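user: can you give me the structure for this one chain? tokens are fine.
assistant: on it. calling the predictor now.
[tool input]
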Amino acid sequence: MPLNADKVFFQKEEWINTVKYMSPRPRYNHVELQGELYLQLKHYFKKKM
């Protein structure tokens, strides 16, 4: 199943915004967030393969 890059990117953005505003840590570093997201996505796609 081919991955729709735009859709994935949109979901990423959505995920980042959700975490940013719902995070109990108000000073959630963006770099940290990217790293966290990367790990989550990697884990997610590994499971799907």
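assistant: here you go. The CA atoms of residues 41 and 47 lie 10 Å apart. The two ends are 10 Å apart (CA to CA).
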